Amino acid sequence: MPGTPEAMFAEIVTLRKKYDDLVAFTVNLTAERDSLSADLANSRSSSPESHSHPLEVKPNKTGLYKKPDGAYSSAFVIALCLISCIAGWCTASSTQTCGG
User: Fold this and answer.
1) Which pLDDT score, from 0 to 100, does residue 52 have?
2) pTM of the prediction?
């Protein structure tokens, strides 16, 4: 019977085992996270330039920021958007039929 004291005790034992397993898993995960964090810190401190992001913006010798290689200026992107919109509008208006 589900409501009997023996069934409730068995359920408590099962839940306690699941809780203990969850705590053990959490402890292992935390230890692994700490180990990986330490490894990451060690690898970053040993060679900071080799692990930097390719599009990361860094100040140059004069203290000014230089755009990374492969990046477009915002003016270029805005101009490209405007040209694309105008081209789409012209194409759409030239294909419309009159008298419809």
Assistant:
1) 56
2) 0.42
